[in-house]
Write a structure and sequence with these properties.
single chain; eight-stranded mixed beta sheet; six-stranded antiparallel beta sheet; 20 strands
């Protein structure tokens, strides 16, 4: 999903104060590109049992991933419930309940536009690999939201970009935003505690406590298929002889100043699961604070 960083930047600029939910796992898209985005699944029952079990073992800010626990899904979520704009990313061609805006991955295809909703066709990403997605919005708000998206696209577009928009009808508009290769791929700097992980505690502003932990997994999210320099930042102790795993396979890693550094090339089409392991357990006081990825 090479368009994910660009779509996140476009939506974040057009809709300040946005709360977001990415229901596209195991692919993922908006995670990790929109800060505070909650991750989940639209069709958990369709996953193979082993993949569902892996995702069911993860927690984000102390809560199960969305779509796996109906009681947890129904619980109050102040960041979502109090947001002026609530965006859900979904692979299903219908509006997500509770969302004010739904971004349908890959577009709606032949599905009929639901009553009361308008659609903004988004063609975004790299100019040599454009992606089509549909933004479902309340019909009375289509014109105003389309104007804000057009303004955000114009502000994001750089030299050599293709950008433009058209109002097609009272219920439909289209927006084009394409960047030259390699596309819009900004650096990432993420708080480790904000990402889904399988540690027993949620962590906090000081990071994820790892002292004595033998192994942990963390869902980084969807990265474009490029070579990335990944750096894991620690505090409280040196990480020592930690092993790094990407999607379950051991990966070369080296100790850098205050962290671990690796060169990675994510597999396209799925969110990246990162693992850490220590033969005798992580050093006392060790905390994972940040993840940094640079293309």
């Amino acid at each position: 999903m090479s368009a994910a960083p660009l779509l996140a930047a476009l939506l974040g600029r057009a809709l300040p104060g946005l709360a977001a939910r990415d229901l596209g796992l195991p692919l993922g898209a908006l995670l990790p590109w929109l800060p505070g985005c909650r991750a989940g699944l639209a069709e958990a029952e369709a996953l193979p049992p082993e993949e569902r079990a892996l995702l069911a073992g993860l927690r984000q800010s102390g809560q199960p991933l969305l779509g796996l626990d109906p009681a947890a899904d129904a619980a109050a979520d102040p960041a979502w419930d109090g947001a002026a704009e609530r965006l859900a990313w979904s692979p299903l061609p219908d509006a997500v309940p509770g969302a004010t805006i739904t971004l349908v991955a890959g577009g709606m295809g032949e599905a009929a536009l639901p009553e009361g909703l308008g659609r903004i066709l988004l063609v975004a990403g790299r100019e040599d690999a454009p992606e089509r997605h549909d933004l479902l919005v309340p019909e009375p708000r289509l014109s105003a939201l389309f104007e804000r998206l057009c303004q955000a696209a114009a502000a994001l577009a750089g030299p050599g970009w293709r950008q433009g928009g058209r109002a097609l009808s009272p219920r439909q508009a289209s927006l084009l935003l394409l960047a030259p290769p390699p596309g819009h791929v900004p650096d990432l700097l993420l708080a480790a505690a904000a990402l889904p992980h399988d540690l027993p505690g949620p962590g906090g502003a000081e990071g994820l406590p790892l002292g004595g932990v033998r192994q942990m997994r963390l869902l980084l999210g969807a990265l474009p298929a490029l070579r990335w320099r990944l750096r894991l930042g620690f505090a409280g102790a040196e990480p020592g002889a930690a092993a790094l795993f990407l999607d379950g396979l051991r990966h070369p890693v080296r100790l850098g100043s205050g962290g671990l550094v690796a060169s990675i090339e994510p597999v396209p089409g799925r969110a990246l699961v990162l693992g850490l392991a220590w033969r005798e357990g992580a050093p006392p006081g060790l905390r994972l604070v940040t993840l940094e990825a640079r293309p």
